Amino acid sequence: MNNNTAKVLNLRPQRDTKNMELFKAIHRAQHVQRNFDLIKKMPEQDIATIISAATECTSKQNIAQYKLHAITNREVIEEIYKCTKYIPKEDVNVDQTGYINGHNQAKGAGRFSDQPQVLGNLVLVFEDYDNFRNFNFSEKQWAKIEYRVKHYVEGINLMPCIETFVGEVEYLRPFLESLSEWEKATPNQKKKVKIVAKILDIMEVDYHNKDELDNYIKTTHSTLEGDKFTALGVAAGTINLTASLLGYGTGCCSCIHDKLKLKKILGMKNYPMLIMGIGFKQEGKNRRVHHKNDQYMFGTIKKQPIQINYVY
Question: How sure is the predictor about 152, in pLDDT bands with cuts at 50, 70 and 90?
Fold first, then answer.
């Protein structure tokens, strides 16, 4: 075992190998592309591949944690871009370039007023989505769960996904807590309520205690929220690498200053979580130059090294 990985493992692959191709793509994918060549048209097959990267990447229990909006319409993209603009208060000094507090072009000090990386040939917007609430188990799945409950042995997996089980608990909760609601339930609903009650007993959750049931639901929601952002990060990383391998530049933006407007533009039910711009790099132009202002260059920050403990 050696915690100085560089001495035992060369992280730079040999030239002209598949590993080197991937190595270069990974490093290219680190960089934000702030300007794009909009004269070129992205092939539909490339768009389809990038969308597949966003929708077919791994997520815990294969749960859909977000909705995806893919946009190539330039008018709509320009409106999305406006949602990233920071509108300063009257007492904030805005210089002649339109940027706040005399942004230092060389060192990257100060604050940016907008996010031109969202002006790509293709723009992806991730919408918040609590799909576990709609994760209704099929009758076949309920039959399997019922069998597992009846033959429960400590350690066996009762549910397809115990986190999404909270959606069933919330749906059936009125029948658990109210005798009048229980009497209104259909035979099938009563069957499911009994299964849910048994599983809660196994999990040592007292569903007769409102505070305890509330705490179980709240804690599970917190776990699901963490899973959501993990899934979002995995998706963004998969898209970045896929686009890089296809030769495109990318940029992520979570600085969405007018989320309500963006909701209306795309007809979203929930709020946007992330915007990604993907597109052709402008040849001969530094990737950090503002798409709409050649006189303005964004700063850059050197990537901090990740400590590696290589156990071999």
Answer: confident
CA atoms 154, 159, 160, 165: torsion sign:
negative
| Selection from 31, 34, 87 nearest residue 257 by Cα | 87
Q: What percent of the chain has pLDDT over 70?
A: 83
Rounded Cα gap, residues 270 and 67, in angstroms: 9
Distance CA 224, CA 230 (A): 10
In sequence order, the 6+-apart residues with CB closer than 8 A to the CB of 184 are none
User: Measuring CA to CA, which residue among 47, 22, 66, 169 is closest to residue 120?
Assistant: 47
Residue 196 burial by Cβ neighbours in a 10 Å radius (0-12, 13-18, 19+): buried
- Per-residue pLDDT of 35-77, as tens digits, reads 999 999 999 999 999 999 999 999 887 888 999 999 999 999 9
Residue 133: pLDDT above 90? Answer: no
- Is 99 or 138 the better-scoring residue by pLDDT? 138
pLDDT beyond 80 at 22: yes
Domains of the chain, CATH where assigned:
32-300 (3.40.109.10)
What residue type is assigned to position 20 of the chain? M
